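Open question from group meeting: does this chain pack into something compact, or does most of it stay loose? Before anyone orders reagents, we agreed to write out a predicted structure and look at it together. Recording both the input and the output here so the notebook holds the full record.
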Amino acid sequence: SRTAANILEFTNKVVIYYDTAKKVKPLQIEVKEKTALLISLKKNLADTEANIEKLEAMLIDLNKNREIREKELAAHSAKYDQMQRRLNAANRLIGGLEETQKSWKKDSQELKVAMNKLIGDCLLCASFLTYVGPFNYEYRMKMIYNDWYKDLLETTLNCTENLTVQMRLTDEVEKSAWASEGLPNDELSIQNGILTTRAVRFPYCIDPQMQAVRWIKVKEASNGLDLLSFKKPGYSNKLLGAIQYGKPVPVSYTHLTLPTSDLVQISVVAVSLKK
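Structure tokens returned:
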């Protein structure tokens, strides 16, 4: 009948519903679980992203601090290198000063010894300047080293061992300058150069080879040198001017006799200059 057909249809639908519900129920439970898990994961993701942002901000700050520290490290490294260079220079300076101190102590001791011998050296050199000028080389050497020097050694006055007049009255620089000006480099010429430049009196040079004249001309050329001769007229005025203004004047042919009037005039000017 129609009613039975409806009941059968209803029953079939209930069975279908039951079968469907039996399959869907676990899926719904699983969906709820997955949904809860998704919500939890999203929350964890949000927390993680927030932590990442914080860490990124911290990383930026750390990078800035790292750059600052690297600059400070570079500055300190440069300062360290500078201090190290200064320390090395100071060590070298101290080492050099130690060597200099040793050298100064040695020089001081040598100076004390030299001062103790200075009186004898000066006496021998003064004797040389005063007395040996007129004599030839052989007689000079005999007077200085065979007579005077040995006499000094026998007295209480100390003097330098193996002393030569060149050691006290000139040096290598001056001798080189004299040689460049035309003075021969032998010992006799050096002695004559010393007598010419160191003597308190006007030097009188016997110079047949004209070596002294050539040397004096070159040496005194920058000082307004004027070569005079008693044979030339007007020499007395030039000589007076040289005496008055302190100019060098080599005079040739000095064996000639000067007129008395010229001698008196020159003497008067010399005396007035001394006053």
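Observations to bring back to the group:
Residues 2-131 form the longest helix (130 residues).
The chain is about 75% helix and 0% strand.
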